[in-house]
Amino acid sequence: MKSILKGKVLYISTAAVLTAAAAAGFFAYNSMQEPETELPEVLHGEAEVVTEPVIASEPIITEADVIVTNVPEAEVSAAVTVPEAEKEILPTEAPSYQPMVRPVNGEIIGSFSNGELVKSTTLNVWKTHDGVDIRADAGATVKSMSTGTVTEVRDDPMWGVCVVIDHGNGIEGHYYGLDKTVSVKTGDTVSAGSVIGAVGSVEAEIAEPSHLHFGVKQNGSWIDPASVVSSIGS
After folding, report:
1. Cα–Cα distance measured from residue 36 to residue 68, given in angstroms and rounded to the nearest whole number
2. What is the pLDDT of residues 137-163, one digit of tens each?
3. If DSSP states are collapsed to H, E and C, what string results for 51-94?
4. Does domain 108-227 have CATH number 2.70.70.10?
5. What pLDDT does residue 199 have?
6. Which pTM was predicted?
7. Above 90 in pLDDT, residue 196?
8. Cβ distance 142 to 190 under 8 Å?
9. Which residue, 121, 120, 138, 141, is CA-closest to 129?
10. Which residue has the higher pLDDT, 4 or 226?
11. What is the torsion angle, in degrees rounded to the nearest 10, for the CA atoms of residue 10, residue 14, residue 16 and residue 18?
């Protein structure tokens, strides 16, 4: 009987030892498979949360993907380079003549001589006639043939009151034989058809009927007024 009890006690002890060994092996295996997780440090009772910045990858944009909108038209035009061959070719100089008006209405009683000598009825000498004589009664209105600037107003003993106007592009208008009530002065700006005075008298041509002596210079040389004012025939 005692031997039987000893056998049972030995069996139970052996089983307990085996069970303890098995439990120790299980915990050891779990420790190897699942590493211990570090707990966040506790400050003032709250866990410190460490957040690392998230870096998003930026898309790569090519020139083909860029669409420009809301750009002022003036800025777009300025940015466009026009090839030299496609640029508009503008004239380097203004036209030689501007549209002109007749300074007085009347027939031509003395033509432009174009440098040739003609006999003066008043002076009884041969001389050039460097303008045209347009018949008009004394006191008739005299107008500027075009826009310009008055460069000279003088009272000449032979030609009466003379007004010279620079009409631009090398063109000068010479208005001779005005009366003393001339209505412009040196430096004034006039327009085509502006009144500059009235017909007076020309002592150098006093033997002729009342008229305006009208001359035109281009770049300092006398030219036929008919080449400038188409309504004047010479």
Report:
1. 57
2. 999 999 999 999 999 999 999 999 999
3. CCCCCCCCCCCCHHHCCCCCCCHHHHHHHCCCCHHHCCCCCCCC
4. yes
5. 98
6. 0.59
7. yes
8. no
9. 120
10. 226
11. 180
DSSP state of 205: G
- In the chain, the amino acid numbered 223 is I
For residues 124 and 23, give the distance between their C-alpha atoms in angstroms, rounded to a whole number: 155
Residue 20 has pLDDT above 80, yes or no: no
Angstrom distance (rounded) from CA 209 to CA 197: 19
Q: Please identify which residue in the block is written with the tokens 């090519």.
A: 62
Handedness of CA 156, 147, 210, 185 (dihedral sign): negative
- Of the CA atoms within 13 Å of residue 225, those in its CB half-sphere come to 30
> Tokens for 163?
């007004």
